[in-house]
TrEMBL record, chain A:
GO terms for biological process: phosphorelay signal transduction system. Residues 7-128 form the Response regulatory domain. It comes from Kriegella aquimaris. InterPro entries: CheY-like_superfamily, Sig_transdc_resp-reg_receiver, TCS_response_regulator. SMART domains: REC. Keywords: Phosphoprotein. This is Response regulator receiver domain-containing protein. The modification 4-aspartylphosphate is found at residue 61. Pfam families: Response_reg.
TrEMBL record, chain B:
SMART domains: HATPase_c, HisKA, PAS. Residues 516-571 form the PAC domain. The keyword Nucleus does not apply. Residues 614-839 form the Histidine kinase domain. InterPro entries: HATPase_C_sf, HATPase_dom, His_kinase_dom, HisK_dim/P_dom, HisK_dim/P_sf, PAS, PAS-assoc_C, PAS-like_dom_sf. GO terms for molecular function: phosphorelay sensor kinase activity. Signal peptide: none annotated. Keywords: Coiled coil, Kinase, Phosphoprotein, Transferase. Its EC number is 2.7.13.3. This is histidine kinase. It catalyses: ATP + protein L-histidine = ADP + protein N-phospho-L-histidine. It comes from Kriegella aquimaris.
C-alpha cells in the first residue's frame, strides 16, 4: 500500500450519487483522490488533455446524457493511451445481457449501486483492492459483477 | 467192140475204176496217140499214177493238151457234160469255155517248168446241163517227157465249191449277226480268262470312253463300272467263270464314260465257255444300254408308290375324316367298312362292327334307321336327314343323339350286293345347345318382359316396334301390346315428333354408337293428358353378324321422382349454403372484431409490460436513494434518535427493501418478453454451480446443504435458466423451517411418454425433468397450482419476505422453453418442484 492516494475518476450525472461515492471513499482505509465528471464528454476532454494525469480507475455510470457510459467505454478502450486503465461500470441497473456486453467491450468490473451506505463502502474498498493492490493476479477470483443482494 | 476184148491190156491201164475201164475200152487205134502200148513212157507213168490216186487228177498231154482224168475228178464234170467225151480230146476243144483262163496258166507251166497254186478259184464250166460256178483249189505241175522236155501238165485239184459256198454262207450269217447286233445297239465283249484280255466292239468302247484301237485290260474295263456296282459285277464274273449256272451271266449295272463322264445303266448278258478240263477259256456276251428302261422302271416305281400313297392317304382321310363314314352291303346291312369317327359315334370297336349285320350290333336303332336303308334300296337314290333323332347305347347308357346324314347307294348291283354309303355327322351338342339357347332365350325374353326396367326394341330406320316389355307398355306408353306391335314408333306416338328421341334413335342406327342420357325431360300424352317426365335412358345399337345396324334396344328408367326430390334437395342445399354464407360472414366479422380486441389487448399488454419495466426501472433510482440515505442516518445519527425514531427508521428500511425486491422482480418479469432469443445448449450443472456461488453467503448463513446429481444440457436461454434455479434455490433457502437446516436435493431423470401426455407436452420431443426438493415449511398439496400465480403468497408477509413473483417468473420461463413445471408439497415437511424441459 502506497501513501500516495489512488487517483480515481467518477463519471455520473447524478449529483447525490457523486456525493455518496466521494463520502464512501473518504471513509474507507484506502486513500483516494476522486475527480468526478457530469458526463462522458467532460471525461473525454479531461483524458485527452495531455497536461492532465491519467486516473488509476475510472468508475462509469451507464445512463447519462450526451455520451452514455457504453459509448464512453468504447472511446476509452479505443485509445491506446487509456486502454490500460481499469474501468468499473457503476450503475443502478443490472441486466445480465448488458453486463456481458460491457465485459466484452473491456469493462473490468460491474458494480450495481447498493442501497446501503456501509455496503457501498465495502464494495468500493474491495473493488479498489482487487483492481489496484491485488492487480490482475486476483482478477480471476473476483466476480465481474458486484451486486448488492449477493453481498448481504 | 467185142473183137477188142481179146486185146491185151497194157499194165498201166489196169485198175483205175470206171475211168480205167473207159480208157481200156477206148478205141485208141483211130486216135492220134495211137495204141497206148506205144505211148511215151512218161505218159504211161503219169496215167498209171492218175488212175490209181483217189485225189482228183487231170492231165493235159502234148502240145495240143490232150485230156485225161480219173474217177476222183469225174464228179467235177457233172452228170450231163464233158464226161466221157473229152477223154483224149484237145484241151482247147474240151475246155473251150474256160480256155482263155487256163491256157495262159498251162502255157506258163509249160514254158517255166514251175508248178502253180490256185486256191478256191472260181472256174465256172458246163456240167449238169448248165454252166455252173465251180470253185477249185488246184495246182498245175509239169510232166517231164521221155526226152526230158516238158511233155504235159498234171492238174491236181479239188473242187472247193461247197466249202466256198459254205464259207460264203457263214460270212453272210456273220454279217446278219453283226447287223442284228448293230441294230439292237448292243455292245459286244469277249474276254479270255487265260490271257486276261478283253475286247469289245466299237459301241462298247464308245460307251466306255476308250479309243477304238485300244485293247482293253480287264481292270480298265472294271474301272468303268461305278464303284457301287463294282464288287457285285466282279462277284458275278467270278461265278460265271467258275461254272455257276452253266457259266451264264446276267447282270445290270452302271458305267461311267471315262471321257465325257456320262453314266449309263447297262445289262450284260454272256456265257463262259469251258474246255474238257472244265477251265473257262472264253467268256463273252453283249452289253445292252438299259438306262432309259431303268429310268422308266424307276419312274414307274415312283408313280406306283405315289399311287399307293394317294390310295393310303385317301384311305387315311376316310379313316380319319371328322364325319362318320361307313359302307353297308346287302339287305342285312353288313358293315363293310366304318371309319374312326363312326366307331366313336357308335361307341363300338372295329371288330365289334366290321363284317356284322348293323342291326344285330345296334338293335336299338333298327326301328328308326332300317326304314331309311329300305328307302335307299327301293328308290336307288340318296336319302338325307338333318338333326335326325336316334337312341344310341353308349358307354352302357341309352342316349338320345342327333345326326345330319346322307345314305347313298354306291353301286348298281342287285339288292343282295347293293352297297350303301353312310356319311353321318353327330350334331347332338349343337341341338342340345340350341335347345338350351332357345330355353334361355325364352327365359331371357320373359325376364325382359317382366323386368321393372322398361325396355323396347325398334327395327329399321322406321323404328318399327318389335318388342316392348310390360313396364314400357304400362308405365311409359300406356298401351297394350296389340296397340304397338309391328307399328312404327312415330305413328304410335306422334307427339315424339318434336322431341329429340326419334332423331337420337335414328342416329344410333346410322352410326352404331350408343347414346346415354340422364334426367332427360320428356313429355307425352296418356289418356289424353299431357305428362312431363324425367328419364335415364340408354339406346344400344343391335348389330347383325355383318356389322350392320338393324335396330336399337332402349332401356328407360323413370327418374321423375328422384329428379324432383333432388331438385328439392338442391334448392334446399342452395338455401343452406346461403345461410351458411351469411353466418360465416357474421362469424368472420365477429372474428375480426375479436382479432382487433386481441390486438388491442396485446398492445395493452405490451404497453403494460413496458410500463412495468419503465416504472420499475425508474422507481429503482429514488428507492435506492431512500435506502442509502436511511442507512446513513441510522449509521451516523443513531445516537440522536429516540428508540421510537429508530423503530420507524427500521420500518422504513424494511418497507424500502420490500419495495426493492418487488421492483427487481417486476423488472425480471417484464424483461422476459424482450429476451426470447438466444436459445443455446446450456449445461444445467454449470448454471446450478453459478447460482450456488451467487447464493454462497445465504447458504453459509443458513447452514444449508445442497446436493445434486448430474444434470443434463438443455437448449435454453442461459440467463433465464440462471433465474429459474436462482429463484427455486432462493425459495428453498427462504422458506426453510426454523430450527432445521435446509436440505436441498437437485436431481434429474428422463421423462416417459405417458408423463408427457399427462402434462400436455409435445410427445415428439425428448424431455428431461429436474427436481428441486427441500425440507422447508412446504405447502398444502392442493395449493400446488396456485403457487405459480402472480403475487400469490402462501405465507404471511412478515414471516417470509418476497414479492410472490419468483415462482410466476419461473413458470413463465419454463413455459417459454416449451416445458412445464409442477409443484407438490406437504405442510411442514417440504416442497418439491419438478421442471420439464426439452433437450
Amino acid at each position: 500500500m502506497s501513501n500516495k492516494p489512488y487517483y480515481i475518476f467518477l463519471i455520473d450525472d447524478d449529483e447525490d450519487d457523486r456525493d455518496l461515492f466521494k463520502d464512501a471513499l473518504r471513509e474507507i482505509s484506502i486513500k483516494t483522490e476522486v475527480v468526478s465528471f457530469n458526463n462522458g464528454l467532460e471525461l473525454m476532454a479531461q483524458l485527452e488533455d495531455e497536461n492532465n494525469g491519467l486516473p488509476q480507475i475510472i468508475f462509469l455510470d451507464l445512463h447519462m446524457p450526451i455520451i452514455g457510459g457504453e459509448d464512453c467505454l468504447k472511446k476509452i478502450r479505443k485509445n491506446a493511451q487509456f486502454n490500460g486503465i481499469p474501468v468499473v461500470i457503476y450503475s443502478t441497473y443490472y441486466i445480465q445481457q448488458m453486463a456481458n456486453r460491457l465485459m466484452g467491450l473491456g469493462a473490468n468490473l460491474y458494480i450495481q449501486k447498493p442501497s446501503s451506505f456501509s455496503l457501498l463502502k465495502s464494495i468500493l474498498e474491495r473493488c479498489i483492492i482487487a483492481l489496484l493492490e491485488n492487480k490482475v493476479a486476483q482478477e480471476e477470483d473476483t466476480n465481474f459483477v458486484l451486486k448488492e443482494n449477493e453481498w448481504e | 467192140m467185142g473183137v477188142d476184148n481179146k486185146k491185151t491190156i497194157p499194165k498201166f491201164l489196169q485198175g483205175g475204176g470206171e475211168m480205167g475201164q473207159i480208157m481200156r475200152d477206148k478205141d485208141w487205134e483211130s486216135h492220134v496217140l495211137g495204141d497206148p502200148v506205144n505211148w511215151p513212157l512218161a505218159l504211161k507213168f503219169a496215167i498209171s499214177t492218175m488212175l490209181n490216186t483217189k485225189f482228183p487228177n487231170f492231165i493235159f498231154w502234148g502240145a495240143d493238151f490232150r485230156c485225161f482224168y480219173n474217177d476222183a475228178y469225174r464228179p467235177s464234170l457233172g452228170k450231163d457234160g464233158k464226161h466221157p467225151s473229152i477223154l483224149g480230146e484237145k484241151g482247147k476243144e474240151a475246155w473251150s469255155e474256160i480256155w482263155d483262163t487256163i491256157h495262159p496258166l498251162l502255157q506258163q507251166v509249160w514254158q517255166t517248168g514251175e508248178a502253180t497254186w490256185s486256191e478256191n478259184q472260181l472256174i465256172p464250166f458246163y456240167r449238169n446241163g448248165q454252166i455252173e460256178n465251180i470253185y477249185w483249189t488246184f495246182s498245175y505241175s509239169p510232166l517231164i517227157s521221155d526226152d526230158e522236155s516238158i511233155g504235159g501238165v498234171l492238174t491236181t485239184c479239188t473242187e472247193t465249191t461247197e466249202a466256198v459256198l459254205n464259207l460264203q454262207k457263214l460270212e453272210e450269217s456273220e454279217d446278219l449277226l453283226k447287223f442284228a447286233i448293230d441294230s439292237a445297239e448292243l455292245g459286244t465283249w469277249d474276254y479270255n480268262p487265260q490271257t486276261n484280255e478283253f475286247s469289245g466292239n466299237e459301241r462298247l468302247k464308245n460307251w466306255f470312253g476308250i479309243a477304238n484301237d485300244d485293247s482293253i485290260e480287264l481292270p480298265a474295263a472294271m474301272n468303268v463300272i461305278l464303284p457301287k456296282d463294282r464288287s457285285r459285277v466282279a462277284d458275278a464274273i467270278k461265278k460265271a467263270l467258275g461254272g455257276f449256272n452253266q457259266g451264264k451271266y446276267d447282270i445290270t449295272y452302271s458305267i461311267k464314260n471315262q471321257k465325257n463322264h456320262e453314266v449309263k445303266i447297262v445289262r450284260a448278258l454272256g456265257k463262259s465257255w469251258f474246255n474238257k478240263n472244265g477251265e473257262a477259256y472264253r467268256f463273252n456276251g453283249t452289253l445292252h444300254d438299259v438306262t432309259e428302261q431303268e429310268k422308266s422302271a424307276e419312274e414307274i416305281k415312283i408313280a406306283n408308290r405315289r399311287i399307293k400313297n394317294e390310295k393310303d392317304r385317301f384311305k387315311n382321310i376316310i379313316q380319319n375324316a371328322p364325319a362318320g363314314i361307313a359302307i353297308f352291303k346287302g339287305p342285312e346291312c353288313l358293315v363293310e367298312m366304318a371309319n374312326i369317327s363312326l366307331l366313336d359315334i357308335l361307341d363300338k370297336t372295329s371288330s365289334e362292327l366290321i363284317g356284322k349285320a348293323l342291326f344285330q350290333v345296334l338293335p336299338e336303332i333298327e326301328v328308326e334307321a332300317s326304314p331309311l336303308f329300305e328307302e335307299v334300296r327301293r328308290k336307288r337314290k340318296s336319302v338325307r336327314g338333318t338333326e335326325f333323332k336316334l337312341p344310341i347305347k353308349r358307354k352302357g347308357k341309352m342316349e338320345i343323339a342327333y345326326f345330319d346324314f346322307i345314305l347313298h347307294p354306291v353301286n348298281e348291283e342287285s339288292d343282295d350286293h347293293l352297297e350303301i354309303m353312310l356319311v353321318a355327322n353327330e350334331v347332338t351338342d349343337y341341338v342340345t345347345a340350341r335347345n338350351v339357347l332357345t330355353e334361355n332365350e325364352y327365359q331371357f325374353k320373359n325376364l325382359v318382359m317382366q323386368s321393372p326396367i322398361a325396355k323396347a326394341i325398334f327395327r329399321g330406320t322406321d323404328l318399327k316396334i318389335e318388342m316392348a316389355n310390360n313396364r314400357m307398355l304400362n308405365h311409359f306408353w300406356g298401351k297394350t301390346w296389340d296397340d304397338v306391335i309391328g307399328k312404327n314408333l312415330i305413328d304410335v306416338f306422334p307427339e315424339l315428333k318434336d322431341q329429340q328421341y326419334i332423331s337420337e334413335l335414328k342416329e344410333v342406327i346410322r352410326t352404331g354408337q350408343a347414346i346415354r342420357n340422364q334426367e332427360s325431360k320428356g313429355m307425352h300424352f296418356k289418356d289424353g293428358k299431357k305428362f312431363e317426365f324425367y328419364i335415364d335412358y340408354v339406346y344400344l345399337p343391335l348389330k347383325e353378324i355383318d356389322g350392320s345396324i338393324s335396330g336399337v334396344m332402349i332401356t328407360v328408367t323413370d327418374v321423375t321422382d328422384q329428379f324432383l326430390a333432388k331438385e328439392k334437395l338442391v334448392n334446399f342445399s342452395k338455401e343452406l349454403k346461403e345461410q351458411v354464407k351469411e353466418r360465416t360472414a357474421l362469424l368472420n366479422h365477429a372474428n375480426k372484431k375479436l382479432q382487433n380486441s386481441i390486438k388491442k389487448l396485446e398492445n395493452a399488454n405490451d404497453e403494460l409490460e413496458s410500463f412495468a419495466y419503465v416504472s420499475s426501472h425508474d422507481l429503482q433510482e429514488p428507492l435506492r436513494k431512500i435506502q442509502i440515505y436511511t442507512s446513513r442516518i441510522l449509521e451516523q445519527e443513531q445516537k440522536s434518535l429516540t428508540e421510537t425514531g429508530k423503530k420507524y427508521f427500521d420500518k422504513i428500511t424494511v418497507s424500502a427493501s420490500r419495495m426493492r425486491t418487488l421492483i427487481d422482480d417486476l423488472l425480471a418479469f417484464s424483461r422476459m418478453e424482450e429476451s426470447k432469443t438466444e436459445f443455446k445448449p446450456t449445461n444445467l450443472n454449470e448454471v446450478l454451480n453459478e447460482v450456488i456461488e451467487n447464493l454462497s453467503i445465504k447458504i453459509e448463513n443458513t447452514g444449508a446443504k445442497i446436493s445434486s446429481s448430474s444434470l443434463p444440457t438443455v437448449k435454453a436461454v442461459p440467463f433465464q435458466m440462471h433465474q429459474v434455479f436462482s429463484n427455486l434455490l432462493g425459495n428453498a433457502l427462504k422458506f426453510s423451517k426454523k430450527n432445521r437446516k435446509p436440505l436441498i436435493e437437485i436431481s434429474s431423470k428422463s421423462v416417459n411418454r405417458k408423463e408427457l401426455i399427462n402434462l400436455g407436452l409435445n410427445t415428439s420431443r425428448t424431455y428431461c425433468k429436474v427436481t428441486v426438493k427441500d425440507n422447508g415449511i412446504g405447502f398444502a398439496n392442493e395449493m400446488g397450482e396456485h403457487i405459480f400465480e402472480v403475487f400469490k403468497r402462501l405465507h404471511g408477509k412478515s414471516e417470509y419476505e418476497g414479492t410472490g413473483m419468483g415462482l410466476t417468473i419461473v413458470k413463465k420461463i419454463i413455459v417459454n422453453h416449451d416445458g412445464a413445471i409442477q409443484a407438490s408439497g406437504m405442510e411442514g415437511e417440504g416442497a418439491t418442484f419438478t421442471i420439464y424441459l426439452p433437450i
